[in-house]
Amino acid sequence: MIDIVRQIQAIHRDVARRPTAAGGQGISVLLRRTYDSTPADVWDAITNPERVKRWFTQLGGDLREGGKFQLKGNASGDILRCDPPRLLKLTYGGETSIVEIRLSAGEGDTTDLEIEHNVPIELAGSGAGSLFVGPGWDGGLLGLDRYLRGHVAEDPAAAANSPEVQEFSRQSAHAWAAAVAASGTATADEIAGALQASLAHFAPDVQGPPAS
């Protein structure tokens, strides 16, 4: 059983407007959480195809800096920078969609993991665009935590669509809506519309009141 409240609270979420490398404006979606494992182990769990398929999906490609990656049923892209076990920078689903994954040693044998996903404002529309990616990243962080704690799903894709994980995703979507509202990067109407679309995508089979 998943402790949904604990898992939701374990993730720090932030949304902001930031300049892009091309000189325009973009939306930054930032997630941060701590894992009870060393940076070397967490790095291996997110980059080793034999381990990634146990908690997420099949990973293939030319897995090196300058190479390309493909996540089955998900995204593909270019590996812009690979600095084990600290930094992975990728294009994710498009050349203007940039993801940085940063690992640092925490207290004891723990790892602080950050994911920052940047997209141009033309693609995101507003900070409300984070509701189309944030819950997906949350789900990945949940799957990684459960894997590192010894919970290996026979079919990670099926597990990700279970009623329990959909309830996690429902609460995640509301948490992201709150993060967007706090950031001031979208109007109330934009947030409301994006929230409904996010719930329909990430939690189509569950209903309930807004997460508290």
Whole-Å distance between the termini? Answer: 20 Å
Shape: globular
Q: What's the CATH topology label?
A: Alpha-D-Glucose-1,6-Bisphosphate, Chain A, domain 4
User: Quick one: CATH class?
Assistant: Alpha Beta
Could you explain how this protein is built, in words?
This protein has a single domain (4-202), classed as START domain (Alpha-D-Glucose-1,6-Bisphosphate, Chain A, domain 4, 2-Layer Sandwich), CATH 3.30.530. Helices cover 39% and strands 27% of the residues. It has 8 helices and 8 strands. The chain has helices at residues 4-9, 39-47, 49-55, 121-124, 134-148, 156-160, 163-183, 188-202, and strands at 12-19, 25-35, 59-61, 68-71, 76-83, 87-91, 98-105, 111-120. The protein has an 8-stranded antiparallel beta sheet. Belongs to the AHA1 family. Residues 37-145 form the Activator of Hsp90 ATPase homologue 1/2-like C-terminal domain.
